Amino acid sequence: MKRLSTTPTADGFAMPGEFEPHVGCWVLWPERPDNWRQGAKPAQAAFADVVRGIAQFEPVTVGVSAAQYDNAVNQLPNDVRVVEISNNDSWVRDCGPTFVKNQATGEVRGVDWEFNAWGGLFDGLYFPWDRDDQVARKICELERVDSYRTEGFVLEGGSIHSDGEGTIYTTEECLLSPGRNPDHSKAEIEAKLKEYLGAEKVIWLRQGIYLDETNGHVDNICCVVEPGKVLLAWTDDESDPQYAISQENYDILTRSVDAKGRQIEVVKLPLPKPITITEEESKGVDAVDGTLPRLEGDRLAASYVNFYIANGGLVVPAFGDPADQLAVSVLEEVFPGRTVVSVPAREILLGGGNIHCITQQQPA
Amino acid sequence: MKRLSTTPTADGFAMPGEFEPHVGCWVLWPERPDNWRQGAKPAQAAFADVVRGIAQFEPVTVGVSAAQYDNAVNQLPNDVRVVEISNNDSWVRDCGPTFVKNQATGEVRGVDWEFNAWGGLFDGLYFPWDRDDQVARKICELERVDSYRTEGFVLEGGSIHSDGEGTIYTTEECLLSPGRNPDHSKAEIEAKLKEYLGAEKVIWLRQGIYLDETNGHVDNICCVVEPGKVLLAWTDDESDPQYAISQENYDILTRSVDAKGRQIEVVKLPLPKPITITEEESKGVDAVDGTLPRLEGDRLAASYVNFYIANGGLVVPAFGDPADQLAVSVLEEVFPGRTVVSVPAREILLGGGNIHCITQQQPA
Q1: C-alpha distances out from residue B58 to A72, B6, B51, B83, B313, Å
Q2: Which helix (H) or strand (E) holds A128?
Q3: For A114-123, how does the pLDDT look when each residue is reduced to its tens digit (9 = 90+)?
Q4: Is B357 a known active-site residue?
Q5: How far is A69 from chain B (nearest CA, A)?
Q6: Contacts of residue B2 in chain A, CB cutoff 8 Å?
Q7: What are the φ and ψ backbone dihedral angles of B209, each rounded to 5 degrees?
């Protein structure tokens, strides 16, 4: 398939909102034992549950290494397509393509951002990341979709949300991190987002979820319900460092207007109580130099905002916390046309992300 | 995708003739240095030429290992789809699925034959063959096609040809080889072909091309032009061991009738003069225990019958022999509606097969 040297915006393409119709969803199969405990077996079961959840609503394709191919096929339902895609880890939101669409022609293309494992040699989470960086290209080839490669510009899909009407939401903590594009000014980064996502306005939140190892991806703290309406991860506990972060973002959002000049309605989505890694969980992870360790007592960046919007449904993480049900109630209220499916996600959280991080929608 | 435990024939499916319309063609990218000289670089160039030849007529997908992914993408044209498919070697005719079709519904499914590298531990050509044996499944998954797995029954796609009207052509040399299904009688093997290919009649040639390392695959010596009409590789040199082989097959064919009761018209396709491996060619191949060596002076199983039929075209091997042009003339005459493209194929021949062996059609 073609590698385009133009830009999506110049070619009439823009990133749809996740809430717009999909042809399907992509997932990568977890396996690395230095990130996923017990040889990734509990994570694989959790990923399979997420896949089953999404497959109720839309077709799912799971990419998997050659070594794990048979095992993945045997753990996944028959109606899920399993294809070989090597990877360094299983975060297709971040290493996969960001699909952009030309609304006039209906054509879909992919943006193949340069990927450096959330910070490269500065503060990346593992080394190497060469197979991850090929994932977007491979998905585009497989779907016979042309792609734009942003050579020299690093970005992960989890660090952006689009309202599909010209507005991109992101965080300064991530996009201005020295591990991404230290040679680009904030204005230059904003210009790149506009060029590659068909955007007219970028709304910059400050920080993501407290201690989020992605340098504060927006997709763990804030997401778009519909143009002009967002969900923001929230705590009322003023003693929690998360409180000030959420409050600052709330202030930014309520004082901003989007690309269409709309005031932004902010719906607060409660956070679960702080979740930390147990001794047993920590001991189940291989200790490997160069990979972020999973230490007993470390606080995890748990958030219900990290859900996936499917055609007619939502697949939402559950943590065994009393707020699980509250989060579902809020989501059922703000997404009245969609069935909300709750999936136990602690095993995904232990790997450093959640349901939104392990999925990537492909627009219809 | 589903793994079916029924059989294609019982489900109303049959193998179309290769001359029937395709949605596309599959190829695997060569790389193993113990089979392909000079690190497979000359073979890769030859495969790319074949792919370019076929891509004039129909879509081509090339499967490639993760290690060779970028290199393959860069050597292949933009309109060719490149996907990751691990393999032990690049013979998709033999390890890929045999597609079968239900003419009433139009549905296509795959037969995933057990594969053992042309003879397993008896006289197989390399070890292991685990990745090859997954190729058919992976192609079916990728195309969202359900498949039949013939667990306990070994077969390669190159050992059969179908006329699309109930007749299968094969060779005793291959299908009765002790390296395939030694626990099956000839009658049991014939029954399997009928069950899995929607066939009513099997025409058994005796041997394939002299010294063919596949135990005499039919696709190197005889192929179907149209129902009731075949091409047979031919030499007039009575001193050549090939002469008696071709003559015996000629006698079998002319004395047989096909599933529809037709007399079979046999068109003789001339063979090139014997081709042997040069010292330089032999030295370019890694010597590895367990892999068939490529020795100086070894005679290669060169044959023009080993061509690919594409939509509206033929892609035919050339060996730098005076018969190259003669073969093209014969093929132009027997395939009047198709454009014949001749591609230099010595580098493919050096690896043990030819253009038909490295391709697999997917019916429309």
Answers
A1: 32, 31, 10, 17, 9
A2: none
A3: 999 999 999 9
A4: yes
A5: 9
A6: 78
A7: -60, 140
CB atoms within 10 A of CB A346: 19
- Helix, strand, or coil here: B189? helix
CA distance B55 to chain A (A): 13
| Lookup: tokens for B198 | 């929607």
* Average pLDDT taken over every residue of chain A: 98
Q: Which of B83, B134, B138 sits opposite A138 (nearest CB)?
A: B83
Task: Please give the Cα distance from B194 to B178 (Å, whole number).
Answer: 21
CA separation, residue B217 to residues A29, A226, B36, B38, B130 (Å) = 38, 61, 20, 27, 21
Taken in order of first residue, the domains within chain A and their CATH numbers are: 3-363 (3.75.10.10)
Is A81's CB within 8 Å of B141's CB? yes
* Closest partner CB to A86 (pick from B66, B73, B79): B66
Count of CA atoms in the C-beta half-sphere (13 A) of B136: 28
Contacts of B45 (CB under 8 A, 6+ apart): B75, B347
Residue-wise pLDDT for B152-194, tens only, equals: 999 999 999 999 999 999 999 999 999 999 999 999 999 999 9
Chain A within 8 Å of B23 (Cβ-Cβ)?
no
Residue of A5, A84, A109, A130 to mutate for B, most B C-beta atoms under 10 A? A84
Q: Which of B310, B311, B2, B308 lies closest to B140 in space, CA to CA?
A: B2
Residue pair B177/B123 in contact by the 8 Å Cβ criterion: yes
Question: What is the spatial distance between Cα A337 and Cα B201, in angstroms, rounded to a whole number?
Answer: 57
Inter-chain CB proximity A84 and B84 less than 8 Å: yes
Cβ contact, residue pair B142, A142, below 8 Å:
yes
Enumerate residues 6+ apart whose C-beta is below 8 A from B280.
none
Q: How far apart are CA B348 and CA A61, in angstroms?
A: 34
Q: How far apart are CA A184 and CA A176, in angstroms?
A: 9
pTM of the model: 0.96
Taken in order A345, A346, A347, A350, is the CA torsion positive or negative? positive
Ordered DSSP codes for A60-114:
EEEEE-STTHHHHHHHS-TTSEEEE---SSS-HHHHS-EEEE-TTT--EEEEEEE
Cα–Cα distance list, A75 to A68, A80, A295 (Å) = 11, 10, 29
User: B354: number of CA atoms within 13 Å, CB side?
Assistant: 27
Q: Provide the H-helix boundaries in A224-265.
A: 241-255
Residues B218, B204: Cα–Cα separation, whole Å: 10
What confidence tens digit (pLDDT) does each residue in B200-225 have?
999 999 999 999 999 999 999 999 99
| Interval B229-274: pLDDT, tens | 999 999 999 999 999 999 999 999 999 999 999 999 999 999 999 9
A160 φ/ψ angles, rounded to the nearest 5 degrees:
-140, 150
User: What is the ipTM for the molecules in this complex?
Assistant: 0.93
Judge: B2–A78 Cβ closer than 8 Å, yes or no: yes
Per DSSP, the three-state class of B193 is: helix
Answer whether B78 touches A (CB < 8 Å).
yes
